[in-house]
Write a structure and sequence with these properties.
The protein has eight helices and eight strands; from the N terminus they run E-H-E-E-E-H-H-H-E-H-E-H-E-H-H-E. The protein is of the alpha/beta class and 226 residues long.
Length: 226
Amino acid sequence: MRPLVAVRPPEYWPRPLFVALMDAADRVVLADTLSYSRQSRQNRTLVRTPSGGQWLSVPLAAGRRGRSIREIEIKGPFRWIRKHWRAFAYNYRTTPFFEFYEPELVPFFEREWDCLGALTCASVDKVAELFGIDTPLVRASEVEGAPSTVRDIHASTGGAFLSAADTAQADRRLTEVDAVVHLGELRYRQNFEGFFPEMSALDLLFNYGPEALPMIRRKAYTDAGR
């Protein structure tokens, strides 16, 4: 049986569905060679606030059109990353597990990142580490020939294609999809009244700690593609 391989552009502090995909896959290729997409999760994430959700966006330098994620430069000065950390700390310090994970996260926000690809891939790596996911994560730019389309990246892996529900339709237009990961309704106690979906997976982690991954596993399922 061929291993299940997911090909996915890296997200900045990815969502729970991304975590479910990493957990279900035998290998994940972070497609940093694909073209940067505006209004995506590639340079922004959502944190829970008293009023709902707040976008944290990474400022990008001009000249982004047609360039790959790994080529996109981050606009300085680098005060933005300190602001991002302050937003996490302000909104999550009262959660049960923020202080538990804080020492693991602080070094990330003390760096001065100048490349979007390196930043987003590193945030995915850190989320996988904190959730305890040991699925191998490889950057497309590290694959021989640095393939720059989903079809070519997948062809280089020799595995069966594993997609996630939010991109399965687009993936089917590009390549044969063998299986799709779905994440059923995942409602949980957040640090402020009410529930708002699509937060960074850190939202779940700060509130539930080691129970976060089992919660995702109970709601995630994989079906065969068509």
